[in-house]
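Input/output pair, single chain:
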Amino acid sequence: MSYLDAALGAVGALSLGNLVLTVMVTRRTRRTAEGIAAAPPRSSAQAGLRPGMPAGNFTAVTVSGDSLTLADLTGERSLVGFFSPGCGPCQRQVLEFAELAGKISGGARHVLAVVAAEEEERAAALSFAAGLDGLASVVIEPAHGPVATAFAARGFPTVYVVGADGRIEAGELAVGMLPALATT
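Output:
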């Protein structure tokens, strides 16, 4: 009987220890969830350039073969978006970007979509950007290419509204986060 008593005691101790650990993990999970809920939404601070900062100069070639610089985007408000074909949120954001692009005065001349892809991924990048045809100038470049560097785009998706003077008016990680004022 002593073996049975010892085994029963050990099972009881393990059960009590498991209960204590479960309570501790539950409390910590709640505190973490509360911290996440209380955190401010991701915005321009994570997008790279902040409002008022000038975009850097760049030279890029669009998929249609046209040369493009920052000067081509100035003079009117422009929309610039950075996407990656392998990025889940980018799949949804590029659709919203295309919808907004159709509303920008100046048309495709003042809308730039940058798709981050290496040369061997060009076909996938072209397919990804097909919905932007006629709505935006499309540049395919590596993740840290000249346009991404000029805008300090650190992640995908990232969307900017560039003022007529080449300064950032808004920079966000989602089209829907852009202020209404910046999208008209």
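Helices lie at 2-38, 44-47, 70-73, 88-101, 122-128, 146-150. The beta strands are 59-61, 67-69, 78-83, 111-116, 137-141, 158-162, 168-172.
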